[in-house]
Amino acid sequence: MTATFDTDRMAAVIYGSEKLASRRREISAAVSRIPELHDSRPLPFMDRLEKVTEMTRKLAALNKHLPDIIDPNDYEEGLHLYHEVMGMEGHPLALHEVMFIPGLIGQGSDEQYEKWLGRARRREIIGCYAQTELGHGSNLRSLETTASYDPSTREFIIHTPQITALKWWPGALGKSSNYAIVVANLIIRDRNLGPHPFMVQLRDEETHRPLQGITVGDIGPKMAFNGGDNGFLGFDNYRIPLGNLLNRHARVEEDGIYVKPPHAKVGHSAMIRVRSHMATGQAWLLAHSLIIAVRYSAVRRQGFLEDKTREVKILDYQTQQYRLFPSIARAYAFIFCGFETIRLYDQLILDVNKHGNTSGMADLHALTSGLKSVVTYQTGEGIEQARMACGGHGYSMASYISEIYGVAIGGCTYEGENMVMLLQLARYLVKSVELIKNGKSKELGPMVAYLAEPDTQEKTPLELKDYVKLFQMMSKRQSWKATERYLKLVEGGVSRDVAWNKTAVELTRASRLHTRLYIMETFIRRVSSIEDMNLRMVLRDLVNVHVNYELLDCGIYLHDVSLLDSIKNQLYSSLHSLRPNALSLLDSFQFSDIQLRSVLGRRDGHVYENLFEWAKSSPLNVSDVLPSVDRYLRPMMEKAKL
Ligand SMILES: CCCCCCCC/C=C\CCCCCCCCCCC/C=C/C(=O)SCCNC(=O)CCNC(=O)[C@H](O)C(C)(C)COP(=O)(O)OP(=O)(O)OC[C@H]1O[C@@H](n2cnc3c(N)ncnc32)[C@H](O)[C@@H]1OP(=O)(O)O
Ligand SMILES: Cc1cc2nc3c(=O)[nH]c(=O)nc-3n(C[C@H](O)[C@H](O)[C@H](O)COP(=O)(O)OP(=O)(O)OC[C@H]3O[C@@H](n4cnc5c(N)ncnc54)[C@H](O)[C@@H]3O)c2cc1C
Q1: 415 flagged as catalytic
Q2: Contact in structure between 232 and 225 (CB atoms under 8 Å)
Q3: Would residue 141 be called left, alpha or beta, if left means φ above 0 and alpha means ψ between -120 and 50 degrees?
Q4: What does the pLDDT look like over 195-218, one tens digit per residue?
Q5: Which CATH architecture has domain 267-416?
Q6: Nearest atom (ligand 2) to Cα of 416
Q7: Ligand 1 atom 33: residue of nearest CA
Q8: pLDDT tens per residue across span 256-275
Q9: What residues does each domain of the chain span?
C-alpha cells in the first residue's frame, strides 16, 4: 500500500522545521560513513563491562569527530548525533549534558559560569546530578546529606551521616564523573535550611582517583542503561569552598547570613527541565518500538483473509491495528505537547534568571508532573504491545524492543516516581476546585478553567470539539469527586494528610484525566495549525484514532455508556483509514538502521535473512560443542545410559 504523503515533509512537522529534519538526515549519513562511530558488535551480545567500555570508546571517538559533523553549539543537532552514535543504553556524558550543565546554568551565578561552565562545555570536566539517596528519593525534605557552613574557614563540610544518606542512582556518577552537582541540606549554625545544590569535585583531575573523603562506585546492573554507570557516593566531612554553593538564587554571606531564593522550589529547575523534555524523549522511544513492529507486521504473513491463495500481512488484522495504531497517535501527540512544555520551560528559565519572576513555576510544575507520569506509563504500555505484536521474534533481543522498554519505563521512576508526581498535579487540581467552590473562578489559570464549566448532556461526539467537551466533562467530574471526598473527610475531623491518603487513588485518576485532556487538546491544536493540507488530512486520521481510543479507554467516567458503541464504530473505521499511511507515519521519524539497532526492524525488510545472520553471530555459535556441554551435559547423559 502506498502512502498519501511525503515522509520528508512529515519529518519537518515532527522535528519542528525542515532545516532540522534535513540536518538530521545529513548527520545520520555522516555517521554511517565513519566506522569508528558504529557499535563494534551488537550490544546484546556484550556483558556489562564490555558495554561500558564500548560506550566510552564511542564517546571519545564522537568527541573527536563532532566538530566535523555538527555545529557544536546546536543542542538539537547534538542530541540527534548522540542518539545515533551512543544509542540509549547510557554513557559517561548522559547526565553531563542533560542535568549537570543545565543545573549549573539554572542555579549558578555569572561568576560560577565563568569558573565551571566553559570547562564543562569543553569537557575538561565531566559532571552528574547527585540528589537521590539510598533511603530517600521522592521526599526531598528527608534527604540526609548535610552541607554545614564553617565561617572560620569559609567552607561547607559535606557529610554522609549514615548508610541511608549515601547518594544512590545518579547516572554517570559511579566511574565516569569527576564533578557533581550534589544536593545537600544547607546547615548554618545548626539550622537546617533544606536541600541546596553544591558544585563538588569528586575525583582528581589528573589521576581520576576519588579525592580523600569521597567514597564512590557503581551500583551494579539494572533493567536497562547498562552501558551507563549509575553510582553511589558518600562524604566523610569533605570540605568545599563557600563559592561552591550554586548561588544564583540563594546565597550565604561570608559571615553565615543566609539570603533566601525568590521561590522555595527554584532549586528544582534541573528536574523541571528534564520533566519538560520527557514527553518528546518518550515519544521517540515509543516510535522506535512501533516502527520495528509495523515494519515487521508489513513483512510477516500469517493466516488467511479473503484470498485463500496467499497468507495475509499481519498488519491487516484489525487486532494488530488496534494494538499499534493508537500508540502511533500517542507518539505524535506526545511530540507536540513535548514541544509546548519545552517552550514553556525555556520561557520560565528566562523569566526566573533574567527577571527574578517565578510566577510561572507552580503551573509548569503541575503540568510537567502530570505529563511525565502519563506519558511514561502510556509509552511503556505501547512498547509492550509493540513487542507482543511481533510474536516470538519480539521477545528476541534481535528486535531490541526489550531494551527500548527497559529504558522507557525508567522514566516512570526517575525525575519523580509517577504516583508521587500525579499527586503533585492533584494538589493543583484540588486547589483549583476549592477556588471555584469559594466563588473565585476568575483566579483559575486557562488550563483549569473548564473545571468551572457546568455539566451538559452527553452526546455522541461528531466533531473534534465534541470529543474535547466530553473529555473535559469527565475530567471535571473526577476532579470534583476527588476534591469533595477529600474535603468531606477533612470536615469530618480527619487530618489533611490522612484525608489526602484516603483519597489518593481518586486523586491520581483526576490527574490522569486532566493530563490526557491536555494531550488531546494540544494534539488537535497542533494538527489544525498545519498548513500543508495533505499532511493535515493524514494527521487528522491520526487524531481520529486518538480521540476515539482515548474516549473509549476512559469510558467508565461517562454517565451514558450507550455512547460507547458509536465511539467503537468510529474507532474501527479510523483504524482502517489509517492503514495505508501507518508505516510512512513512522518512517517519517527517519530513524536510521544504526540508530534503531533492531535486526527485526531494518529498513530493507529482509527479516528472516537478517535474523538468521544475527543468530549465527551469537558467541554461543563460535563452536559446535560448548565447553559446558563437555563438562556437564555429556557426562550427565553418559551416566544416564549406564
Ligand atoms: C555538543 C553539542 C551538545 C550536545 C548536547 C546533546 C547531548 C545529549 C547527550 C546525551 C543525551 C542522552 C540522553 C540520555 C537520556 C538519559 C535520560 C536519563 C536521565 C535520568 C536522569 C534522572 C535524574 C533524576 O532522577 S534526578 C532526581 C529526581 N528526583 C525527583 O524527581 C524527586 C521527586 N520529588 C520531588 O520533586 C519533590 O520532593 C516533590 C515535588 C514530590 C515534593 O517537593 P517538596 O519540596 O517536598 O515540596 P512540598 O513541601 O511537598 O510542597 C510544597 C509546595 O511546593 C510545590 N512544589 C514542589 N516542587 C515544585 C517545583 N519544582 N516547582 C514549583 N512548585 C513546586 C508543591 O506542589 C507544593 O505546592 P502547594 O501549593 O503547597 O501544593
Ligand atoms: C534509571 C534511573 C536513573 C536515575 N538517575 C538519577 C540521577 O541521575 N540523579 C539522581 O539524583 N537520582 C536518579 N535516579 C533516582 C530517581 O530519581 C528516584 O529513584 C526517583 O525519584 C524515585 O524515588 P525513590 O526511589 O525514593 O522511590 P520511592 O519514593 O521509594 O517509591 C517507592 C514507592 O513508594 C511510593 N511513594 C513514595 N512516596 C509516596 C507518597 N508521598 N505518596 C504515595 N506514594 C508514595 C511510590 O509511588 C512508589 O510506589 C534515577 C533512577 C533511575 C531508575
Answers
A1: yes
A2: no
A3: alpha
A4: 999 999 999 999 999 999 999 999
A5: Up-down Bundle (1.20)
A6: 21
A7: 416
A8: 999 999 999 998 988 999 99
A9: 125-261, 267-416
Residue whose C-alpha is closest to residue 591's, from 23, 14, 118, 28: 28
Predicted-complex ipTM score:
0.96
Q: Is 16 annotated as a binding residue?
A: no
Backbone angles phi, psi at 214, to 5 degrees: -115, 130
d(CA 246, CA 299): 55
Rounded mean pLDDT, 450-455: 96
Q: How far apart are CA 464 and CA 456, in angstroms?
A: 17
User: Which superfamily does CATH assign the domain made up of 125-261 to?
Assistant: Butyryl-CoA Dehydrogenase, subunit A, domain 2 (2.40.110.10)
DSSP letter at 631 equals I
Probe target for ligand 1 pocket from 59, 140, 448, with the most ligand atoms within 8 Å of CB: 140
Q: Is 103 annotated as a binding residue?
A: no
Residues 6+ apart with CB under 8 A from 51: 43, 89, 226, 227
Work out the number of other CB atoms within 10 angstroms of the CB of residue 242. Answer: 18
Per-residue three-class SS string for 283-316: HHHHHHHHHHHHHHHCCCECCCCCCCCCCCEHHH
Closest atom of ligand 1 to CA, residue 137 = 32
**Residues in CB range of 622: below 8 A, 6 or more apart:** none
Cα dihedral 394, 396, 397, 403, rounded to 10, equals 40
Instruction: Render pLDDT for 381-411 as a digit per residue (tens, 0 to 9).
Output: 999 999 999 999 999 999 999 999 999 999 9
Q: Which of 84, 89, 403, 415 is catalytic?
A: 415
Per-residue pLDDT at 356? 86
Q: In 554-606, which ranges are continuous DSSP H helix?
A: 563-578, 582-587, 593-596
* 116 contacts 108 by C-beta, under 8 angstroms: yes
CB 351 within 8 A of CB 360: yes
- Distances in whole angstroms, Cα of residue 203 to Cα of each of 168, 172, 365: 17, 13, 34
Residue 552's identity, in one-letter code, is L
pLDDT tens for each residue of 319-365: 999 999 999 999 999 999 999 999 999 999 899 888 889 999 999 99
